[in-house]
Each structure stands twice: as C-alpha cells, then as structure tokens.
Amino acid sequence: MLVLLAGIFVVHIATVIMLFVSTISNVWTVASSSFGPASSGLWLLCNQTCEHLQVNSSDEPSLKAVQGFMILSIIFSVIALVMFIVQLFTLEKGKRFYITGAIMLVCWMCILIGVSIYTARFAGKMPTFPRPHHGYCFILAWICFCFSFIIGILYLVLRKK
C-alpha cells in the first residue's frame, strides 16, 4: 500500500509540473516561417522575438476561457496535492482521499474544458504561417488530462483501504 501511495504521489507531482509547463510555455501550436520556427501559446506568439498573442475580437473570450481553465486546473491540482498530504496523516481509514479525489476530478474537468476549447477554436490556426501543427504543450495538456483522471479515480478507490 505504501508503494502504491508513493507511486500516486510521484505521478501527481509530475502532473502538477506538466500542467505548469504546458500553461506557461508558448508552444501549443508550431509552424515554420522564413525566419525560422514560430510558436504560439496561450500568452505569446514567438518567432524570433515574443510578443503578445493577437486574436480577433470574436476569439478573445475563447482564449480567456482557455487561460482561465488552465490556471484553475493548476490551482485545483496543487490543492489536491496538499489535501492528499493532509488527509494521509489526519483521517482514519475509510475516510481518506475522498476530498482529494473529488478535487482532482474537478482539475480533470478544468483541463478537459480548457483544452477542448483550444482544440475547437485555435488548433491549427496561426495566421500568416503555413501548415501549423500541435506543439508539445498541447500534447502535455492532454497527457495531464489522462493522468488527472486516473489519479482522481485512484484516490476515490484508495479511500476504502
């Protein structure tokens, strides 16, 4: 049981780190230009230098929603990590990890909403750059989506042991 808890803890920390990286880095969409590779994230558009991401007025609420949900997912993931540590030492068997699992599933839902909005509205769209494709941050966000769901379910199952 201790090995299982340690493994879940390590995966949870890895998920938090990957969420930070995928939200902060600006490599959600990548394309080539005459000046070299260009990348676009949630905050900046980088070619040789980085500048604020310019979106048209109809896409701005969608971008703000993606930014908000990704930040919320980080917050909920960190809260779930803290709650895991607190519940590990304070609650008796049968009541452990219920809150942690619920918070992690809220994190999972925030990632789902944020990345789904980005996929629907922005994936493959980089004006003035030919043939854009997904960057590593976009892929990391989907990996975090899978990990947070698995961790949330495991926390709910572990509460009974």
UniProtKB/TrEMBL annotation:
Name of the encoding gene: Emp1
Keyword terms: Glycoprotein, Membrane, Transmembrane, Transmembrane helix
Bilayer-spanning residue ranges: 69-90, 97-118, 138-158
Entry similarity comment: Belongs to the PMP-22/EMP/MP20 family.
Record Gene3D superfamilies: 1.20.140.150
Topological category with respect to the lipid bilayer: Multi-pass membrane protein
PROSITE patterns: PMP22_1
Subcellular location(s) per record: Membrane
Protein name according to UniProt: Epithelial membrane protein 1
One cellular-component annotation, GO: plasma membrane
Species the sequence originates in: Brachypteracias leptosomus (short-legged ground-roller)
Cross-referenced InterPro entries: PMP-22/EMP/MP20-like, PMP22/EMP/MP20/Claudin, PMP22_EMP_MP20
